[in-house]
Amino acid sequence: MKPRSRVQDIPDWLLERLARGELGAADAERIRALARAEGGQEQLDAQLALLEQSNRQILAQHPPAEVAGEIRRRLARAERSSAGQQRSAARARWLLGALATGGVALAALLLVVRPGTDPGGALPGTPGGLPLPGEPPEITTIKGMRPQLAIYRKQGDRADRLGPGSSVRPGDTLQLAYVSANSRYGVVASVDARGTVTLHLPESDGPAARLAGPGERPLPHAYQLDATPGFERFVLVTSEEPFTTATVREALLGPGKPLPASLTLTEHTLSKETP
Amino acid sequence: MAVDIESLYRAHGPLVLRRCRRLLRDEGKALDAMHDVFVEMIRRRETLDERAPAALLLRTATNVCLNRLRTERRHPEDREEALLGAIASQTAENPESRSLARRLVDRLFAGTAESTALIAVLHYVDRLTLEEVAAEVGMSVSGVRKRLSTLKTRLPLEEAA
């Protein structure tokens, strides 16, 4: 590594932090030593003084009351948009709850519970018997339940579930999660308005991932939205048999190329707010 | 607790605006981006690290500006502007880069790691050394080098000192 030789080569990033006393003692001393060594102390002081002058000029050109007012307006607009998305998410949660409890008359829904509470029957720890201490709890499955894709947006310390059609902004951090509904293999991907496909699970091309279950399973990493305008369409493709990410890419990008009938598609499309 | 926005801006606004000016090269766009930096900080309830608020604000401003650059189609006026544009586009549209950048974002409840784009801007545009970048983003030098290696061949570069 070649050390810097001139005061004017010190990056603005470091000067800003030096001006605020934010650099560690060693880093600050390294910069000051450079200035002393080449007789550039006056130059360094002048650069720091220019930052102070710039601070005063900017505050005069853009007074705090004006800027704060604009920031508040943008915050209010963002909160209104977020409240609308939360209502959509609440409606989606209600609908899923209704499906799960059979509140909607769908012939395909059937609740199956493994027997495990017959004290006069099977021995504990055997099929049909009570679980032994330390054993995992009984698994409840819903026959006919479809795979699900959930999208959460990080908001400070909480996560808001987004319903289909929700609006999102560049830079938003999203966490995807799936419910496999007993499907064994799956791919989670997204495509934006420019046709750029991003793989979320698996994270690179190849065979579809082996899905975990039961319950909602978050993907290993969150996803930060870029500024590509329009929309981002998220899909969960599942199957009982192995398949590849290439099949999903073709279906997302090729007009008139539907998924094979053996694959199940679940999707959410989010609209992107223009900055 | 309500945020005192005027005090926040008075203390940190000029630094943020200078950063946005440097990256966007347009006063109107820089001012617009500066507002959004504070909106983003307040909405995310970011607690400014009292030891290093400037570092957090500079990082956030850089990310806000990079997002704007990704949607622009502007003929660069100089080499630095061309480099910024290339970093912005390569870290958004290239699926491999997006995948890598995404890997740097931790799980939703476990915090956020720095993006490859930010690291690239610090090293190739701001001309921080690898050691200085590593100190800024809290990573090892080898980790920084690995992140940059995926972009290196696609950018018009000369190594920082």
Q: SSE layout and pairings?
A:
The complex is a heterodimer of chains A (275) and B (161).
Chain A: H1 12-19, H2 25-37, H3 41-61, H4 64-101, E1 110-113, E2 140-143, E3 148-155, E4 158-162, E5 167-168, E6 173-179, E7 185-192, E8 197-201, E9 209-210, E10 216-218, E11 223-224, E12 230-239, H5 245-253, E13 264-272
Parallel strand pairs in A: 5-13
Antiparallel strand pairs in A: 1-2, 3-4, 3-6, 6-10, 6-11, 7-8, 7-9, 7-12, 12-13
Chain B: H1 5-24, H2 27-43, H3 53-71, H4 79-90, H5 95-103, H6 116-125, H7 130-137, H8 141-152
What do these coordinates show?
The complex is a heterodimer of chains A (275) and B (161). With 275 residues, chain A is an alpha+beta fold. Helices cover 32% and strands 25% of the residues of chain A. Chain A is built from 5 helices and 13 strands. Chain A has helices at residues 12-19, 25-37, 41-61, 64-101, 245-253; strands at residues 110-113, 140-143, 148-155, 158-162, 167-168, 173-179, 185-192, 197-201, 209-210, 216-218, 223-224, 230-239, 264-272. In chain A, the strands form 3 sheets. In chain A, strands 5, 7, 8, 9, 12 and 13 form a 6-stranded mixed beta sheet that branches. Residues 102-143 of chain A have low confidence and may be disordered. Chain B is an all-alpha fold. Chain B has helices at 5-24, 27-43, 53-71, 79-90, 95-103, 116-125, 130-137, 141-152. The interface between A and B is large, with 60 and 61 residues.
